[in-house]
Amino acid sequence: MIKNIHHLAHLVDTCQDKFLTFEFEDDFLVVLDREEAAAASSDIQKEHAIPSVRSLDLSEPYVDTNHEVQNQGEDFGDSPVTNFELGVDCLLWA
Q1: Gap between the Cα atoms of 40 and 47, Å rounded
Q2: Which of 29, 34, 55, 94 sits between 20 and 30 A of 21, alpha carbons compared?
Q3: What is the H or E stretch that residue 43 is in?
Q4: Residue 67, CA distances (Å) to 29, 43, 92 in order
């Protein structure tokens, strides 16, 4: 389960598989070639004058702490984002 945005960044950064697969509700999949996505990030940053790939707090090493864990049954209201889970081959669920 993805605990927060810092945890998600850590999982993406440490993924060694060829593809990053994000699975959302209603079986909607987004599959990215990990190396191509990393290369495209630099071009996107330049094109849109984005100074860094992420904020400084997300650049710090991720430390898993129990107090950051959200209740899986937590209601997110009208948010399109739900809890994430990490499975085999860097499969990320939203």
Answers
A1: 10
A2: 55
A3: helix 34-47
A4: 30, 37, 22
Which two three-digit tokens encode residue 9? 């960044």
Token pair, residue 33, equals 């070639």
Which 3 state secondary structure label does DSSP give 18?
coil
DSSP 61: P
Q: What is the pLDDT of residues 19-58, one digit of tens each?
A: 998 888 888 899 999 999 988 998 999 999 999 888 888 8
52: Cβ–Cβ under 8 A, 6 or more apart, which residues?
A: 45, 59
- Round the CA-based radius of gyration of the chain to a whole number and report it: 14
Residue 1, Cβ density class (10 Å: 0-12 exposed, 13-18 middle, ≥19 buried)? exposed
**∠ CA(27), CA(3), CA(78), 5° rounding?**
55
3-class DSSP assignment, residue 80: coil
Q: Tell me the CA end-to-end span of the chain in Å, nearest whole number.
A: 9
